[in-house]
TrEMBL record:
The keyword Protein transport does not apply. Residues 12-72 form the HTH tetR-type domain. This is Transcriptional regulator, TetR family. Keywords: DNA-binding, Transcription, Transcription regulation. Transmembrane segments: none annotated. Gene3D superfamilies: Tetracycline Repressor, domain 2 (1.10.357.10). It holds the Pfam family TetR_N. Residues 35-54 bind DNA. One of its GO terms (molecular function) is transcription cis-regulatory region binding. It comes from the Bacteria. SUPFAM superfamilies: Homeodomain-like.
Amino acid sequence: MSPVNKRAEKARQTRARMLRAAGELFVERGYGATPLQDIADRAGVAVQTIYFTFRNKRNLLKEVVDTAIAGDDEPVATMDRPWFRDALETETAEAHLRAHVAGTRRVLQRVAEIVEVLRVAAATDPEVVDLWPKGENPRYTVQAEAAKSLVAKPGARPGLSATEAADILFALLSPELYLLLVRDRAWTPERWEQWARETLHSQLVL
């Protein structure tokens, strides 16, 4: 590996450590109660490195959220991710639902707790909300795209509109409901996935 590539890889690993440390501490203590110095200490970097990389705490939170949703730091939207595209390419509504719920479970395992942190942070720091573009909820956009494909496939419940299916997916596959059952009621993620799939099956699939 060339010196340039070595430096780039080291910078990538340092960035990942900072994001991981921030995510852990935000969940453990809350956004407002977590100083950047504590994040730097856990990541093993100088606090100036955090400022240099992310500029401020709000941008750091945004990067934590975005990375948790994606699963990595690649600039690839959810609807362009392999798991989502593979679900779209299934041939039946039942197969699509199974793949979509499985993929969503993996996302929620990463992101549900940090979404709760974001919700609380936005309530106390209105500028946090401005970090994301205004408009339709991105999570709803994802579910609407999945619903449009699902209702057009064999096995979808007759008369079910894409809008109604999107609303049902948006509600039952929410981070809030995931946390209620997995964190608060001590369900395993696998049990949640089975429950979500079976519940959605009764609503969306014959």
